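Q: What would this chain look like folded?
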Amino acid sequence: MDRADRALLSALQADSSRSIAELAELVRLSPSAAHRRVKALEEQGLILGYAARLDPRKLGLSVEVFVEIALTSQSREAMERFERAVGGFEDILECHLMSGSADYLLRVAARDLDHYDAIHRDCLARLPGVSAMKTSFSLRRIRRFEGYSVPS
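A: My prediction, written as structure tokens:
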């Protein structure tokens, strides 16, 4: 990966709606060279896809919740069963396998506490193999994820 590839990746993370012509001008390449490089970065799996970042508050999702999950067993079968179940609930935004005291960390967004209570009852409480659940509410987001630092 050279300077132009890194510049393209950084520019696309900042605003993936830019046209190839705009990207090319930004990184000082011809449009055809920029297009070829973007396609190559996609084929190499460096670019996984394109999406818009949405404002959760404007969607009515003002409560962000982090849920630590401990399982009754860390067997392969128990973990696979839990992970499959997590995939079936759209209210679970992210799920991370963790080291430390919790086996998993979930991120959930809700409209309010009543909505989170419903998510807890209808979704989280139905996850298989859970021995303990610890919920933390985000009071305020200090920094939003804007993309990865592209190494030079």
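The beta strands are 63-71, 92-97, 104-110, 130-137.
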